[in-house]
Known about the structure:
The structure is a homodimer.
Chain A: E1 3-10, H1 28-37, E2 48-49, E3 58-67, H2 74-84, E4 90-98, E5 108-118, E6 132-133, H3 140-148, E7 152-155, E8 170-181, E9 184-191, H4 198-210, H5 218-225, E10 240-247
Parallel strand pairs in A: 3-10, 5-6
Antiparallel strand pairs in A: 1-3, 1-4, 2-3, 5-9, 5-10, 7-8, 8-9
Helix pairs in contact in A: 1-2, 3-4
Subunit structure (chains A, B): Homodimer.
Binding site for substrate (chains A, B): 113
EC number (chains A, B): 5.4.99.12
Amino acid sequence: MPRYALMVEYDGAPFHGWQRQADGLPSVQQVIEEAAAHLNAGVVPVVGAAGRTDAGVHAEAQVAELDLEADYAPERVREALNFHTRPHPVSILRAARAPEDWSARFACIGRAYRYRILNRRPRPALEAGRVWHVQARLDADAMHEAAQMLLGKHDFSAYRAASCQAKDALRTLDRLDVSRYADAVEFHVEARSFLHHQVRNLVGTLVQVGQGKRPITWPRSVLDSRDRARAGQTAPPEGLTFLAARYAEPLDWV
Amino acid sequence: MPRYALMVEYDGAPFHGWQRQADGLPSVQQVIEEAAAHLNAGVVPVVGAAGRTDAGVHAEAQVAELDLEADYAPERVREALNFHTRPHPVSILRAARAPEDWSARFACIGRAYRYRILNRRPRPALEAGRVWHVQARLDADAMHEAAQMLLGKHDFSAYRAASCQAKDALRTLDRLDVSRYADAVEFHVEARSFLHHQVRNLVGTLVQVGQGKRPITWPRSVLDSRDRARAGQTAPPEGLTFLAARYAEPLDWV
């Protein structure tokens, strides 16, 4: 069976996350799988992703894999999926043939996320559902400084969701940059892989530094404690966007 | 009666434009006027705007004026309007006291719009409703070159809507820049004032140059003809955003 890689953009707002829901609630995976069934003699294939994003989380370039019974050109797969995923806010940006043993999830050696805060008094109109609205002025430089102390390989138990199913909490944080752009504060985060809620817990904790409620050294002391109860709130999902997945072997995207 | 200036951000998608509709269809003006009635002993005031945007057109910083019976601090007006405009995607970014004879529309000496095209094969997911989706590759440099021939003071009859109510079609186009940013092509347009559909007609005409269907000199020859029938299509409203209104007298925004 030919395997395909898909690069997918989606607005997370109407979905209960990437993953297909047992109770039939709408998910990105279900939308793509049901579109793919049209290319697969009605048989619904399983579509796996590099990052199983939570409800409300967006993607600019999620990567997924798909097996089909028949051998189609990747252009054809991309076009057909974009036809059948309508009118959902899910768009297949690119497609590629992938090796038969390739996995969007397990072959991925780097994941990048952006978290966006709208940091102003009036509520968002144009960016509603795309940002976390934080009214109190944030010190992005202080957050950036605090973030640099979290880089490298650590036990991130303190920043892990209670529901996290990973075997261990050891992760290597490669990038955690915090920058201000006018009324927005953006976090750019990269690692080989993340724990469940890790990015949102890091953001929620750093925001307490940005508000001046905690010292710059506090997020690091939370990390060292390995105690989830010490970290800040989980930042809301709508500010988070899956930006990119990196693979050792390049794919021939069209 | 104290007069206030309001700077307003809105998502045009759910509205039949800025202007209050005789048939009661939702408009931005109505949302703000009804919110303002809460500050005005229930009396609904009239709110005028610098740019009466069409259905589906967005604003990052529309400017409007509002008269109230009572004298409130501008902060109070801004906060109260943001409370009462919920849950509509309309946000009062700033407010200011304005002179009694000041008009958001007639005192405005410069208006700036952005038009955004998503220029790629797959349909938009994250930018659905915010861009015109043009699949065929556009030559932004050719469009920019053609656009420069339209700058200055001209009779823009060829780029005016049939429904335009302006007394004459003489307008001075100060800026019409076309630039590519990855998969997007953006138009930045500035003038003291515009005719109805002028920006969208300019975009729709320049796109024919970008697609290679017409020479770079064509939009200028359309202008010189003063014949609306010769111009390209009216670009769809969802790609257009009102960016800014300029005034000779600075306002004391809060």
